[in-house]
Amino acid sequence: MTNDDTPLIAVDGIEKRFGTVEALSGVNLELGDNEVLGLVGDNGAGKSTLIKTLVGIHQPDAGEIRYDGDPVTIENPKAARELGIGTVYQDLALVDELSVASNLFLGRNPIKKIGGLIPVLDEEYMNEEAERILRERLNIHVDPETPVEYLSGGERQAIAIARALVTDPDIVLLDEPTSALSKAAVNEVEELVFTLKENGHSVIIIDHNLEEIFSWTDRIAILFNGRVVDVVDTEEVTRDDIVSMMISGQSVLGDDTDADEQTAGSESATSSSTA
Ligand SMILES: Nc1ncnc2c1ncn2[C@@H]1O[C@H](COP(=O)(O)OP(=O)(O)OP(=O)(O)O)[C@@H](O)[C@H]1O
Ligand SMILES: [Mg+2]
């Protein structure tokens, strides 16, 4: 993990273009140790693109990503996992017919050798490990052999999050984890976010529901047209402040904040809010 003043992950001047669309145009953002950071912005603001850049699905056209202070190139999701970044994508990408345990280990199935020779899937290990991760890390109790199609929305979300936890990441990225969920299931996701924080993870959460953003996050980054308008301490802003920044692309916290110039760490968020 990091010492106190090095952000766990920092992005500096990240740009990403798709043809004529400039999805990210100079994003600066820092995520601290054991912090829950909300990422908000209108449709198309660049939120998912930023997340996908952090997990190596997209390569930035310009800018730098630092992990624990060191510049890194994140070539693919496997490289992101090895660094310590786990993700839950906007569509959960679970396989309905497969069991809870199979979904958790999808693409990295544990193998054992019968008689020291013949490789077979180690289902016993998978089931035990799936049950343990869900119980210990997320406080969710489901049968690891149940096909995920039978689970509730909140439980499915838990399985998707648990899949991100299999590699024991420092950072968990959640892209709209509650968008398709009932109220009861949202409460389960809320528990999950709190549990992640209690267990020492840092979280970036994209969410269009500002009520959830306000009750779950420590800080909020507002994205507008591929730029960070401001990063604010959740306790120091109102919902109107956030909506205004999402719509206008201007910080309401005094400072004439320009994404090109601002550094989006907690220090700048504090200083801009007291300016
Ligand atoms: N693979 C892609 N190819 C072309 N354009 C893309 C691609 N991915 C994203 N874009 C464009 O980049 C911009 C940012 O998209 P992005 O998905 O990051 O927005 P978002 O903030 O996540 O929006 P939403 O809240 O609707 O999920 C949009 O204009 C989108 O059309
Ligand atoms: Mg998105």
TrEMBL record:
Keyword line: ATP-binding, Nucleotide-binding
Domain of life (superkingdom): Archaea
GO molecular-function terms, A-Z: ATP binding; ATP hydrolysis activity
Domain ABC transporter: 9-250
Pfam families referenced in this protein's UniProt entry, alphabetically: ABC_tran
Low complexity biased stretches: 263-275
PROSITE patterns referenced in this protein's UniProt entry, alphabetically: ABC_TRANSPORTER_1 (PS00211), ABC_TRANSPORTER_2 (PS50893)
Region (Disordered), start-end ranges: 253-275
Protein name: ABC transporter ATP-binding protein
